[in-house]
Write a structure and sequence with these properties.
The structure is a single chain. By secondary structure, this protein is an alpha/beta fold. It is 40% helix and 18% strand. It folds into two domains: 202 residues, Vaccinia Virus protein VP39 (Rossmann fold); 66 residues, Orthogonal Bundle (Helicase, Ruva Protein, domain 3). It is built from twelve helices and nine strands. The strands form two sheets. It has a seven-stranded mixed sheet with strand order 4-3-2-5-6-9-7, with helices on both faces. Strands 1-8 form a two-stranded antiparallel ribbon. The longest helix has 13 residues. The protein is elongated. It starts with 6 loop residues before the first helix and ends with a helix. The mean pLDDT is 93.
Length: 285
C-alpha cells in the first residue's frame, strides 16, 4: 500500500470503513506530505530504533516510521480505528498496534517487553485537549526514551519553549525544561489536516535529558513553588506563593529567601529561571 498522506486517500478510507471522526478523541488526520516529512526528519529515526507512536489514526505516519525503524508499537485509543489499521498496516511486519489509552498504559513495562535493549523514541500527532498531561506523563515517568517528537497546538509548543520574561513563559516552560531540551522543527497551518483544527500547530522535539537540568533537594516542593508563583501572574512572587493553597510559606519567609539570592521582594515569578527556582526552593525547604 502506498503512503496515505493526502486528502483523497484519507477521504477514501473514511468512506470505505464508514468511519465517524470522534471529536472526543481530538482526531485531526494529517493530509500534507511535506509536513509528514518534517515530522520524520525531526524525529531522526533509523533502523536501530524502536518507536512508540501515540495515536496512529489511519496509519499514515506509522507506515513511514515502520520503513525507517526496527520496530513500531502504536497505541490507539479508538477501537473503531483498529480494523482500519489492520488494513493500512497489513504489509508492515514490524508494527504492533495496541488498543489502549496511553495515560493508562504501563509504558515502563511496555518498553522493557517490546523493545529490550533498543533505544526508543516517541512520535505522535497528539490530541490538543490532552497534550500537556501526555507530555508530562512521558517526562515525569523517566522512561527509557531518547526523545519525543510531537505535533501539538502552536500555543502550547511556544509555552514549552518560552524563556524567562516572555508572555508565554510559565510553569509548563519550567517543567519541560527540567526534563528535556525543546526544539521547534516546523509550524503547521490548519489546512494540513482533515478535519481542519481551529488553531495552528507545531512540530516540536523534546530531547529527554539523562539527568534533570538542575539539582534540587525536593523536586515535588520546587514544582509546587513554581505553580504557586504562576498561579496569579500579575502578583509578585511573594504574594502569589503566600496565597497559594498548596504551600504554607509566610511572606516574610519568602522575602528572606529572595534576599539571600539577591532578588527583589517585588520580583514576579516570570523573571526567575529554573536554576533560581531550584535555589529558592532549597532555601525554603
Amino acid at each position: 500500500m502506498s503512503d496515505l498522506v493526502s486528502a483523497k486517500s484519507t477521504a477514501e478510507i473514511i468512506k470505505k470503513y464508514d468511519f465517524s471522526i470522534q471529536k472526543k478523541f481530538g482526531q485531526n488526520f494529517l493530509i500534507d506530505e511535506h509536513v509528514l516529512d518534517k515530522i520524520i526528519d525531526a524525529a531522526q529515526i533509523d533502523v536501530a530504533y524502536g518507536v512508540i507512536e501515540i495515536g496512529p489514526g489511519l496509519g499514515t505516519m506509522t507506515r513511514r516510521l515502520a520503513a525507517l525503524s526496527k520496530k513500531v508499537v502504536a497505541i490507539e485509543i479508538d477501537r473503531q480505528l483498529i480494523p482500519i489499521l489492520s488494513d493500512t498496516l497489513s504489509d508492515c511486519d514490524n508494527v504492533k498496534v495496541i488498543n489502549a489509552d496511553v495515560m493508562k498504559t504501563d509504558l515502563g513495562s511496555l518498553i522493557d517487553e517490546e523493545f529490550g535493549d533498543m533505544p526508543v523514541k516517541v512520535v505522535a500527532n497528539l490530541p490538543y485537549y490532552i497534550t500537556t498531561p501526555i507530555v508530562m506523563s512521558l517526562l515525569e515517568g523517566r522512561f527509557a526514551i531518547e526523545s519525543i517528537t510531537i505535533m501539538i497546538q502552536k500555543e502550547v509548543a511556544e509555552r514549552m519553549r518560552a524563556v524567562p520574561g516572555s508572555k508565554d513563559y510559565g510553569a509548563l516552560s519550567l517543567a519541560v525544561g527540567y526534563y528535556a531540551d525543546a526544539y521547534i522543527a516546523a509550524n503547521v497551518p490548519p489546512n494540513c489536516f482533515m478535519p481542519r483544527p481551529k488553531v495552528g500547530s507545531c512540530v516540536i522535539r523534546l530531547n529527554v535529558r539523562k539527568e534533570p537540568f538542575v539539582s534540587v533537594r525536593d523536586e515535588k516542593q520546587m514544582f509546587a513553588l513554581i505553580r504557586g508563583a504562576f498561579n496569579q501572574r500579575r502578583k509578585t512572587l511573594v504574594n502569589a506563593v503566600a496565597n497559594y493553597e498548596g504551600l504554607s510559606y509566610k511572606k516574610e519567609e519568602i522575602e528572606e529567601a529572595l534576599k539571600k539570592l539577591d532578588l527583589s521582594p517585588s520580583i514576579r515569578g516570570e523573571a526567575l529561571d529554573l536554576q533560581q527556582f531550584a535555589a529558592l526552593s532549597d532555601i525554603l525547604t
